[in-house]
Amino acid sequence: MEASTSCKESREEIVFFDLETTIPNRAGKRFRVLEFGAIVICPRKLVELESYTTLIRPGDLSDVALRSSRCDGITRETVAKAPSFEEVADKIFGILHGRIWAGHNIQRFDCVRIKEAFAEIGRPAPEPVGMIDSLGVLANKFGKRAGNMKMATLAAYFGLGQQKHRSLDDVRMNLEVLKHCATVLFLV
Predict the structure, then answer these.
(1) Is 97:89 a contact under the CB 8 Å cutoff?
(2) Quick one: DSSP state of residue 33?
(3) Rounded to two decimals, what is the model's pTM?
(4) DSSP string for residues in 87-124
(5) 3-state secondary structure of 50
(6) What pLDDT score does 129 carry?
(7) Is 80 exceeded by the pLDDT of residue 9?
(8) Catalytic: 165?
(9) Where would I find the Exonuclease domain in this sequence (predicted)?
């Protein structure tokens, strides 16, 4: 509890987050958020303070595949009874706004999708106070030691198991990959 108190007083937590989305298969189709997952981390102790995950039902269920082509298992049936983005927007805003955002390839993908989702419901998007995109950090500091720098490749390189393509599992894996990379860089 002590770590929680010292971090929350100054609001300097880091929120690792990840989205799972549809994959547009036709021109004119957009990415639709299907799942949001986040863990809030105290940067002093690297302990998880809170977590949140939710499936999200898009406005048009036909945007979601009947059968998942990836290992995530997210299908039309899976999200049919999930809340809409509008129903979880306050919670997502509260988790993200005013914190340091962290994740793998979030600048080019996840941040764009969050802004689109909030714009679609006519609300201002949350704003970060800083950003840690592990893809950029690791590409610059860790190099190509682990191959193509995808999260699945990095996790395999460090023996952390397979990427599940479920948002909460992926953010926890992202934190572990960063810890392992930092250890390697410190020792080299």
Answers:
(1) no
(2) E
(3) 0.86
(4) HHHHHHHHHHTTSEEEESSIIIIIHHHHHHHHHHTT-P
(5) strand
(6) 95
(7) no
(8) yes
(9) 13-187
